[in-house]
Amino acid sequence: MLNKSKAKNNGQEFINKVGIIRKIHHVNVVRLVGFCGTNAKRTLVYDYTPNGSLDKFIFSSDHPNGELLSWKKAFDNAMGIARGIEYLHQGCNMQILHFDIKPHNILLDENFIQKVSDFGLAKLYPLHNSVASLTAIRGTTGYMAPELLYKKIVTISYKADVYSFGMLLLEMTMPADRPSIRQVLEMLEGDFEDLQLPPKPLFYPPDSSILAQRSSHYTTFSEESTETKPLRDSIALEIEIE
């Protein structure tokens, strides 16, 4: 349902959503079942997705039905979302730029099939256009491509959605598993064949060996020398004062 503040804009966002979604027919994009267009209650009706949205599996420990996604399902998520976005960009008679790709807008049905949703910020452009005009910032902070943050926006391309998709993928990795800058340098300077596979994603069911490694990591990290701890505490105090 559109909230009251958005409904005041002559229902323009609502009309935009209906107009865009009715053109879409893809397994990885929400399907419009119906809508209510009265001024008091403007509502879009989608197929029911009992597993909620992807953000619940990434950011919350309270997963729907107490389930965790397996590594295969995590991979399937990435593939399904990418296929949905590709369809929006190339599969319709018009190019649909979403401008708000994020875990909160990826719905999961009873079979964990991914559904790209929420087209309130989307725009339609001819397929042959490689760039599009935009006069206002669109998107969610943290997922917006840097070019969308410029004060004077002239043109934008479908690659803004690709950037958002990349941020979504990054959020599937645990913070403790991020490499140190020394490891990053070793990766950049080393041979491709020597690169190690990244750790399993955040929502992968933990096993004893992984938990043991992470426990060891935190223990090592917390064992600070007497020389570095006062410096760290002074920095923290300075941040709090500012």
Automatic annotation (TrEMBL):
**Domain annotation Protein kinase: ranges:** 1-242
Q: What are the record keywords, sorted?
A: ATP-binding, Glycoprotein, Kinase, Membrane, Nucleotide-binding, Serine/threonine-protein kinase, Signal, Transferase, Transmembrane, Transmembrane helix
Specify where it is mainly localized: membrane
Q: What GO cellular component entries does it have?
A: membrane
SUPFAM superfamilies for the chain: Protein kinase-like (PK-like) (SSF56112)
Q: What is this protein called?
A: non-specific serine/threonine protein kinase
Q: Does the keyword Kinase apply?
A: yes
- Location relative to the cell: Membrane
In short, the EC number is 2.7.11.1
What is the organism of origin for this protein?
Cinchona calisaya
* Lineage of source species: Eukaryota, Viridiplantae, Streptophyta, Embryophyta, Tracheophyta
The record's annotation in InterPro entries points to: Kinase-like_dom_sf (IPR011009), LRK10/LRL21-25-like (IPR045874), Prot_kinase_dom (IPR000719), Ser/Thr_kinase_AS (IPR008271)
PANTHER family named in the record? RUST RESISTANCE KINASE LR10-RELATED (PTHR27009)
The record's catalysed reaction(s) read:
L-threonyl-[protein] + ATP = O-phospho-L-threonyl-[protein] + ADP + H(+); L-seryl-[protein] + ATP = O-phospho-L-seryl-[protein] + ADP + H(+)
Q: Which GO terms describe its molecular function?
A: ATP binding; protein serine/threonine kinase activity
Protein's membrane topology:
Single-pass type I membrane protein
Entries under Pfam families matching the protein: Pkinase (PF00069)
